[in-house]
């Protein structure tokens, strides 16, 4: 999965967002990024906030563990999903997230 990279402190996800969509959903791939459709408009950070909330709910992680590292004003963003317990859960958490994403995008 070219849009997912394991780092020492978490997982880096490259996402392509489509704001003002009819519903929130993972829509597959867009080039080398995970495509996420969001109902929020790209105004005053609303789409960024919804992106974090939607991914946190979908990946079953706390919102506080997801941070937009780059692309705050762009459709293409890099998000860091911080590991809860770096020592014990790194490999398991990465495998769980890969599995969730694979099940949805095929």
Question: Main attributes?
Answer:
106 residues; alpha+beta; Conserved Hypothetical Protein Mth637, Chain: A; six-stranded mixed beta sheet; 2 helices; globular
Q: How would you explain this protein's 3D organization?
A:
Strands 1, 2, 3, 4, 5 and 6 form a six-stranded mixed sheet that branches. The protein is 32% helix and 33% strand. The chain has two helices and six strands; from the N terminus they run ββββαββα. It is of the alpha+beta class and 106 residues long. The protein has a single domain, classed as Conserved Hypothetical Protein Mth637, Chain: A (2-Layer Sandwich), CATH 3.30.1200.
Summarize the structure.
The protein is an alpha+beta fold. The chain contains 2 helices and 6 strands; from the N terminus they run ββββαββα. Strands 1, 2, 3, 4, 5 and 6 form a 6-stranded mixed beta sheet that branches.
Q: Provide the number of structural domains.
A: 1
List the uncertain runs.
none
Biggest sheet architecture: 6 strands, mixed
Give the distance, in angstroms, between the N- and C-terminal Cα atoms.
11 Å
- Proportion of residues in extended strands: 25-35%
β-strand number: 6
* CATH architecture term: 2-Layer Sandwich
What is the CATH T-level topology? Conserved Hypothetical Protein Mth637, Chain: A
Provide the gyration radius in Å.
13 Å
The secondary-structure class comes to alpha+beta
Any idea what the CATH superfamily is called?
A: YggU-like
Instruction: Please give the CATH class.
Output: Alpha Beta
- Shape, principal axes of CA atoms: globular
Annotation field: number of helices: 2
Mean pLDDT: 89
Note the run of SSEs as H and E: EEEEHEEH
Portion of residues within helices: 25-40%
């Amino acid at each position: 999965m070219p849009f997912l990279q394991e780092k020492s402190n978490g997982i880096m996800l490259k996402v392509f967002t489509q704001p003002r969509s009819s519903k929130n959903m993972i829509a597959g791939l867009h080039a080398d990024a995970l495509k996420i459709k969001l109902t929020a408009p790209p105004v005053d950070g609303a789409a960024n906030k919804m992106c974090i909330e939607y991914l946190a709910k979908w990946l079953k992680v706390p919102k506080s563990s997801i941070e937009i590292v780059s692309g705050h004003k762009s459709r293409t963003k890099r998000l860091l999903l911080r590991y809860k317990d770096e020592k014990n859960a790194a490999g398991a958490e990465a495998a769980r997230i890969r599995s969730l994403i694979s099940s949805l995008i095929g």
